[in-house]
Amino acid sequence: MKRLAIIGSGDLAQQIIHHSKGSDSYLPTCLFDDYMADGDTRHGLPVKGGIGKVLHHFESGTFDVLMIGIGYKHMQKREEIYNLYAGKIPFGTIIHPSCTIDSTCRIGEGSFLYPGVIADMNVRIGKNTIIYNGCVIAHDSRVGNHTILSPSVSIAGFSNTGDNTVLGIGTVVSDNVTMCNGVKTGAGAVVVKSITEKGLYIGCPAKLRSK
Q1: pLDDT higher than threshold 90 for residue 24
Q2: Are 167 and 151 in contact (CB under 8 A)?
Q3: How far does CA 146 lie from the centroid of its chain?
Q4: Nearest-angstrom CA–CA distance, 34 and 192
Q5: HEC string of the chain?
Q6: Is 2-85 a CATH 3.40.50.1110 domain?
Q7: How confident is the model at residue 26 (pLDDT cuts 50, 70, 90)?
Q8: In the chain, at which end, N or C, are there fewer CB atoms within 10 A of the end residue's CB?
Q9: Each residue of 190-203: b (16+ CB within 10 Å) or e?
Q10: What is the pLDDT of residue 187?
Q11: Quick check: 124 and 142 in contact, CB under 8 A?
Q12: Strands 207-210 and 199-202: what pairing?
């Protein structure tokens, strides 16, 4: 069982701790947070200092794998932290046992799949990506790196989200749709055409609300 360290100490970090405890792969061990003091305790785990201390503790043998517990309000920061440690520290990947993942799927390191996710044939899920409860990703579709799918997002076949995408709860993506990087959708948005300009899209059909 690998010892897991988590960057961040908020709600997402708490959920990573909870679900990693239910796996046979990881033992949550410690947290890193720039806004908490070294030696504090959060969610039952010790805080080992800020992000600048992560590599030192890995090289000292404090933990084996890393995950990023920083949520959707800080998408750029999630990517920056991942890129900072990629190739230097292994990232953990959590897939809840209730997920249905086809054997042909490929899931990038550092990703977290919540209960009830379904990923069909030839699906590709990027690195450092969060797929929340009940999402369905149909065959031959791709979910980008550093992306978050809120609960109950449905993506039809042969569709692609870009990197740094946040799809709001209940978003529906039609087949053969491609999104550029940096797209966000509001709750219940229905995306029926490819998107080439980043920004917030809402409604049915989804239209650009703000850049």
Answers
A1: no
A2: no
A3: 6
A4: 41
A5: CEEEEEECCCHHHHHHHHHHHCCCCEEEEEEECCCCCCCCEECCEEECCCHHHHHHHHHCCCCCEEEECCCHHHHHHHHHHHHHHCCCCCECCEECCCCEECCCCEECCCCEECCCCEECCCCEECCCCEECCCCEECCCCEECCCCEECCCCEECCCCECCCCCEECCCCEECCCCEECCCEEECCCCEECCCECCCEEEECCCCEEEEC
A6: no
A7: very high
A8: C
A9: bbeeebeebebbbe
A10: 98
A11: yes
A12: antiparallel
From residue 208, how far is each of 129, 171, 201 by CA, in Å? 24, 14, 4
The CATH H-level (homologous superfamily) assignment of domain 93-206 is: Hexapeptide repeat proteins (2.160.10.10)
With CA atoms as reference, report the closest residue to 113 among 82, 104, 126, 194: 126
